[in-house]
Amino acid sequence: MSKFQALDLGLVVRGHGRHYIVEDTDGRRFVCHPRGKKSDAVVGDQVRFAEASADEGVIEAVEPRRNLLFRQDEWKTKSFAANLDQLLVLVAVEPVFSESQLARALIAAESAGIRAAIALNKTDLPGTDTARERLAPYRAMGLTMFEVALKADRETSRATLQPWLANQRTFVLGPSGTGKSTLINLLVKDAQAQVGEISQALNSGRHTTTTTQWYWTDESRTTALIDSPGFQEFGLRQIEAAELWRYMPDLREHGDCRFHNCSHIHEPGCGVRAALDRGLISASRYRIYGEILEELQRKTW
User: Fold this and answer.
1) Range list of β-strands (E), 148-242
2) Does the pLDDT of residue 206 top 50, yes or no?
3) Smallest Cα–Cα separation from 41: which of 25, 64, 57?
4) Position 53 confidence tier, pLDDT thresholds 50, 70, 90
5) Angle of helix 99-112 versus helix 128-140 axis, rounded to 10
6) Contact predicate 289/244, CB 8 Å
7) Which uninterrupted H or E stretch holds 20?
8) Contacts of 12 (CB under 8 A, 6+ apart)
9) Are 16 and 211 in contact (CB under 8 A)?
10) Contact call for residues 188 and 101 (beta carbons, < 8 A)
């Protein structure tokens, strides 16, 4: 008999350094720490754990993942969550969103094999038309797009998003101020209760989101939203420079070039640059491609 057969199967719903909140199949939650020094579990991981007491346990093993959403810069790798079905990138009319950050999040999802959608929030504000125009290239790529006003029109926003979210594990990503907390509170009836006294004790004194948190939106625990802290930078060092264009659907569609190893920057007979000249790829998307490519090609010593 495998030594893991006697262990409970749990879901990591929150992490604080070397402490994790693990939920078992009955919905009970435990404070767990990994056996040994290494701590490599992330929110969304399935783990095998042994109960040490009524509300504490020890993680013995992390089950194989089907995907992992993460970012990587020159110095460190930051894992967001594992075993996701989809990514919802939340942007807003105000504050004005960074298209570079949006593109990077979508590239990370594409490289991890996770489908994505964009939700534009605060569409009750002036400036909505400008935001829509900036998002036009993403709509043209066939990306799923939503428009919501999470505070101004709660019921319509809920009705807009719920069918896409139903029965899925959705990671919600977006900078601070876009309305992620509003979204969570709109769709999760007992959001504060799910963070729970255990998590509050581990995270005492911190009022903003400082760690990734898993929420169930329904009592049957079939639909989940995973919220993450806001962030400023989104490195993509995990991607090979020569493969970057393959994770950008608008560039990939026109990647029939004279040279198989075309960088889409200076070579003759480049399908991507020809599409750019014909207006089939937006100038802003191509500029972002060039910036990320240069970043990936830069040597680190």
Assistant:
1) 169-173, 213-216, 224-227
2) no
3) 64
4) confident
5) 30
6) yes
7) strand 19-24
8) 20, 21, 22, 41, 42, 43, 44, 45, 47, 214
9) yes
10) no
